[in-house]
Amino acid sequence: MEIWNKKSGYNFGTFEEGITVSINLPIISQPPNNIKFTIISGKLPPGLRIKDNTIDGTPIEVARLTTFTFVIRASNTTGSISDRTFSINITGADQPQILTKPDALPIGPNQTFFILDSSPVDFQISAIDYDTAAGQRLNYFIEEGDGNLPPGLSMDRNGRITGFIDPLLAIPVQDRGGGFDVQGYDAYSFDFGITPDNGFDSFKFDSITFDYSAPYRGPRKLNRNYVFIVTITDGDTYVRTKFRIYVVGEDYLRADNTIMKVGTSSYLASSSSLRTPFWRTEPELGILRANNYHVIKLDIYDVVDFNSVQYYLEERNPDSSISELPLGMKLDIKTGEIFGLLPYQAAVSKRYNFTITATRFGNDNETASASRTFSVGILGEIDSAMSWTTDNYLGNVQANITSNLKITATSTLPNPIITYEILDGNLPPGLTLQATGEIIGRIRQYSQNQDEGLTTFFDTLNGQRISNQTFDGGETKFDRSYKFVVRASDQVNYSSIDREFTLDIDTPNDRLYSNIYVTTYMPMEKRKVFENLVDNEQVFPQTHIYRVNDPNFGIRKDMRMLIYAGIETEKASEYISIIGQNHKKKRFRFGDVKVAKAKKVGTNEIIYEVIYVEMVDNMDFKDRHLPLKTNDSPNSVNTLTTDMSNYIWNSEGKNLYIGKKEPYLPRPFENVTIDRTNVFASDPKQKNRYPNTTYNWRKRIRFHKDINGVELLSEQNFLPLWMRSFQDDRQELGFVLALPLCFCKPNMSSDVLLNLKNYITTNDFDFKILDFTVDRYIIDSVDGYGNDKYLVFKNQEATV
Q: Can you tell me the distance from the alpha carbon of 699 to that of 582, in angstroms, rounded to the nearest whole number?
């Protein structure tokens, strides 16, 4: 179907973000009325859409000049189609704009342009950058050599300045005059003396008596200006602005100050040498038990030379509710302590909210105050009865398999938060008890690196561990029972219960097994797009996530995809020989987002649910697979396209040895090393090809033979439980190429999946913008090494 008047690769030009455009499609002048245009690959710039024969809309913000490439399909009702690849450039990188005025910062109380030393600071430098809508983030910092903040203050990457200003050094009384010749030469690095301007030589001749001089008071502390330059960047552009913080000693703002001038704009008539009290005690005071004597200390930030402070109970809270202390308790107005005997209380719990004002007193009835509303819960005379819901026998667990064990207890307290700890005994090596009661990890059957296994034997001569032991032909067995005592405590530590648990271990295998994964190493900007998704609490709320702190579950941020589970652990060289054929750098395609359930073996009890993205290998099909080896000879009925530009062996004389005879034999175009497994003397032109498919990857692993010609063993139980579980259609999934996003608690995945769909719609997110290209295996253990190993594909041309 002839419809386009431009070839693929045509660029529509560069357009500014935020400006409405209408771009005509490059088609013939009189297109048929039944033509429909759709995007089949790539995407238009966000904000644009195809409408009739034009691309209309308003491009939204981009971080930098961005080229969007897409494929438009023209189709009609008869089934004819015609595709073209086009691109559009969107520009409009914006420079950050600082909203905070330069020079002196209004950092003091009531936005004054000075602050007393030893005062708390919490000030935000503000800036705006429209590129943040495109995913960029502003970063604030002070470069080396661009000045310093006052000592005690720091600025985070968001431009927030916080801390307490360290007290400025006081000037000794005998030195504070600071005039010429008062001290020895060069005793100080600067002259801080104040020259009188209201005495002799300050007035007209003969207007006052001889030697008249009005007294003046020198400062005890020095006022200082701290000048610094803040750099703000969005990753592409940056701006720099100079700021100043003026730090003043408290004695400078007293009535007897003879130095301050009327004309200064830094101070207000209401400026005071008193520092406003700064509360250190958090508003939530916790839970107290009734029928007990309690003391609560309310604390403010203070230093030695501060004035006296008194505390007062307000009649009303800021929300107009009554401000009242718990019954039986009083406030000490001098120390800020709330104390007293809480009487008997029949109710399960009662909460009290009250507002305390701290007032600092100065001279001449001058005051400075700060208020805070506190909240405390009183637990009535009710027993915190606890009971175990987990039986003391945890069952028989297979070694080397990821644990799903959890112990639980209940309490009669409302909304109990129960923590668990081991009092006596030990868990099997490799397992750890979390404070939440989850037992995470995998039981180590044999010692690995410096970690102990279930049974460890030592070579007494060499002092080394011996793994994979066999005794009496494998008939000898060892006791595999562990006992340990766990204490469960409620959130207020008023009640706890202990229980001894027993865990039996099954070791059906006399050898170790490994799991093989792949992951992608995307560019930083694409990796950030994925991180923004999985770090979003609105999409993946922790209340819905299964075993949040378990590295084997929770939210998956590592983009790791399982290739083979449960292959016999061998030396790294064995696995390297596997990737000699049918393995090459490969890009996988993102498919649909799906949900699967993991059920307790033999039951319909759901342990967890997993949300994953199905990954697609374009060279693999569900019911048809390429063989391990093909032949591209002219007589072959199969046509295979490869990326080879020439044969490894050039035996047709097309090289530097044309016309020459032995010993000038043809040389290979590439090095053929001793570890090459896809080059054969019987195949001089190298017509054999080894298709690079995931199916062939797994087949090479499964049927690989070691140096003795023995196939490596596989263990089905290492496959993740959700792949081994029957789903709602009563079918077991089996192995699937999948990128897990998160593991959810039972019946919680539907909510998370809805959040994910809303995020995709709202943020115009598409997994297809990510790049899942792999070039190596990650194997979690090899013989003699218990941590991850990387096996890089050789990318040889014989593999297609």
A: 10
- Regarding whether 186 and 295 lie in a shared domain, the answer is no
pTM of the entire predicted model: 0.53
Structural domain ending residue among the three candidates 489, 510, 531: 510
Say if residue 658's pLDDT is above 50. Answer: no
**Mean pLDDT for all residues in the chain:** 80
The pair of structure tokens assigned to 206 is 């003969």
Domain membership flag for residue 766: yes
- Convert 346-394 into a string of H (helix), E (strand) and C (coil): CCCEEEEEEEEEEEEECHHHCEEEEEEEEEEEEECCCCCCEEECCCCEE
Q: What is the DSSP string of 207-272?
A: SS-TT-B------SB--EEEEEEEEEE-SS-EEEEEEEEEEE-GGGGSTT--S--TT-SS--TT--
Asked if the structure places residue 632 within a domain, the reply is no
Beta strands 367-379 and 284-289, pairing class: parallel
pLDDT of residue 617: 93
d(CA 780, CA 129): 44
Q: What are the CA-CA distances from residue 668 to residues 242, 658, 687 (Å)? A: 65, 14, 15
Under the phi-then-psi rule, with left for phi > 0, alpha for psi from -120 to 50, and beta for the rest, what region is 92?
Answer: left
Euclidean distance between CA atoms 432 and 595, whole angstroms: 28
**Cis-peptide, bond into residue 96, ω within 30° of zero:** no
SS3 117: coil
3-class secondary-structure state, position 182:
coil
Angle CA 81–86–88, to nearest 5: 145
The verdict on 414 and 363 lying in the same domain is no
Which burial class, exposed, middle or buried, applies to 260 when counting CB atoms under 10 A from its CB (0-12, 13-18, 19+)? middle
Question: CA-based diameter of the chain, in Å?
Answer: 126
What sign does the dihedral 549-552-557-558 (CA atoms) show?
A: positive
Q: Is there a single domain that holds both residue 754 and residue 782? A: yes
CATH number of the domain that residue 105 is part of: 2.60.40.10
Close Cβ partners of 721 (under 8 Å, ≥ 6 residues apart) = 404, 598, 599, 601, 607
Q: Which amino acid is at 400?
A: N
Beta strands in 46-138 (DSSP E): 48-51, 54-57, 66-75, 81-91, 97-98, 103-104, 115-116, 120-124, 127-128
Predicted confidence (pLDDT) at residue 783 exceeds the cutoff of 60: yes
Q: In this structure, are residues 274 and 93 in contact, taking their beta carbons and an 8 Å threshold?
A: no
Lowest mean pLDDT among 85-89, 168-172, 643-647: 643-647
> How sure is the predictor about 575, in pLDDT bands with cuts at 50, 70 and 90?
confident
In a domain, 683, yes or no: no
Distance in angstroms (rounded) separating the CA atoms of residues 488 and 68: 57
Q: What are the helix and strand counts (H, E) for the chain? A: 5, 46
Q: How many domains does the chain have?
A: 6
Measuring CA to CA, which residue among 525, 604, 570, 553 is closest to residue 713?
570
Q: In this structure, are 523 and 616 located in the same domain?
A: yes
Mean pLDDT of 161-180: 65
The range of the structural domain enclosing residue 427 comes to 386-510
Q: Which range, of 161-170, 304-313, 666-675, averages the lowest pLDDT?
A: 666-675
Residues 370 and 431 in one domain: no
The answer to the question of residue 606 being in a domain is yes
> For strand 349-361 and strand 772-774, is the pairing parallel, antiparallel, or unpaired?
unpaired
Give the chain's end-to-end CA distance (angstroms, integer): 34
Tell me which residue has tokens 């969107």: 90
The beta strands (E) that lie in 272-366 are given as 278-279, 284-289, 293-297, 300-301, 309-313, 329-331, 337-341, 349-361
**pLDDT tops 60 at residue 188:** no
